Amino acid sequence: MEILGSGHEQVVFCSDAESGLRAVIAVHSTALGPALGGTRFYPYADEESAVADALRLSAAMSYKNSLAGLDLGGGKAVIIGDPRTDKTEALLRAYGRFVEALGGRYLTACDVGTSNADLDVVARETRFAHGRSEAYGGCGDSSVLTAYGVFLGMQAAAQHCWGSRSLAGRTVAVAGAGKVGSHLIGHLADDGADVVVTDVDPAAVERVRARHPQVRAVPDTATLIRTEHDVYSPNALGGALDPGTVAALPSRIVCGGANNQLATPDVAGQLRDRGILYAPDYLVNAGGVIQVEDERHGFSFARARSKADGIFDVALRVFRAADEEGVSPAVAADRLAEERIRSVGRLATIRLPG
After folding, report:
1. Average pLDDT of the residues of the chain
2. Which of the two ends of the chain, N or C, has the fewest CB atoms closer than 10 A to its terminal CB?
C-alpha cells in the first residue's frame, strides 16, 4: 500500500535521554493536507521493528484519510517502551515538543498504548495534538464512531450481497469485545442480528453479555471460526486473516474494525476466490479518524456522525467497482483512494494570491 509508487516524505527520530523518550514519526503523504495519525506506545523488540511499524501504519493512514473524504494526509508515530511503566508526564511532553517542531506537517492522536488523557498532556507542548478528552474540548473516545462506521460497512456489504442492508436474522461472529467490538455488538443487537462473540479477556465478554444477554459466547477464535455464521468481524489484533483462517471461514462477508487484517496482500484474492466479500478495514474503521478530525473545527458529535454516514456509500461504491473491474475490494479501495490523492492533491499546484 504505497501511494503511486512513491515512498515516505519524512521520517523523524526523536530522542530525549532525560525523560527516556525514543520515538519515530513517519509522514507518508501530505498531498491532501497535514498527515494525521495516532501515536502508538509499544515495547518494540528493537528500533528496526518500531520503524517498520511506523512506516506501515502511516501509509495505511494516507489511504484511510483519503477514502474518508478528509483533507488530510497520512502519518503515524510510535514511542518505544512499555506504556504501563515508562509513560511519564516528562516523556509525553518531550514527545509533544518534537511534534510541535514539525510545524503542523504531522497531527497526532491516540492509538494503542495512548489515551485521551495522554493527548491532553502532549497538547501542553504542541498545537497539533488531537483526540483529547471532552473536558478539554476534545472528541473523547473515538471507538464510538469507529464501531458505527464498521456497522455501516457491514450493512453496505449486506446490501451488496443480499439486497437489504438489515442484518436481522443474520449471524455475526465478532472476534474481540473491547471498546470497538462492544459498541459494534450494540448496533448489531439493535438491528436484530444474532451475535456470537469471543475475546481473550473473559471479563470483556461478560460485560457485553450483561448488556445483551442474547449474545452467545465461545471460548476462542478457533471455535468462533468453526461456528456457523454469515459475517465474520475481526476487531482485535491485525493479521487475523491468514490463508488457514480464510480456508475455514463459512462466512459470506468479512467486516471488522481491526487494523491490517490481511496477513499478506494476497489474502484479499483468496477471500474473493472463496466468494467471501471483504470490506477493507481502513475503509470501514475510518469513523474514529473522522471523529478525531472534527475536533479541529470545534468538536460536534452530530457533525462527525453525519460525516461518518458516508462510509456506507463509499463501501457500496468499492464493492461495485470490485465487481466491475474483476478485482478484490481491497484493490478497488486502494485505487479509489489513490485517485482522490491524485485528483485533489494536484490542486496545490494551482497558485493562489500571496
Report:
1. 95
2. C
Q: Which CATH number fits domain 143-288+296-339: 3.40.50.720, 3.40.50.80, 3.30.50.10, 3.40.50.300?
A: 3.40.50.720
Q: What is the pLDDT of residues 116-160, one digit of tens each?
A: 999 999 999 999 999 999 999 999 999 999 999 999 999 999 999
- What is the reported pTM? 0.92
Confidence category of residue 96, pLDDT binned at 50, 70, 90: very high
126's grid cell:
504542541
Looking at residue 348, its pLDDT comes to 78
Q: Are 60 and 21 in contact (CB under 8 A)?
A: no
Bind-site residues: 176-181
Q: Which of 13, 12, 18 is nearest to 93 (CA)?
A: 18
Residue 4 has pLDDT above 80, yes or no: no
Residue-wise pLDDT for 127-138, tens only, equals 999 999 999 999
Annotated binding site for NAD(+): 176-181
In CATH terms, are 3-60+72-136 and 143-288+296-339 the same topology?
A: yes
> Which residues are part of the catalytic machinery?
76
Residue 312 to residue 165: CA distance in whole angstroms: 10
Evaluate whether 174 touches 197 at the Cβ level (below 8 Å).
Answer: yes
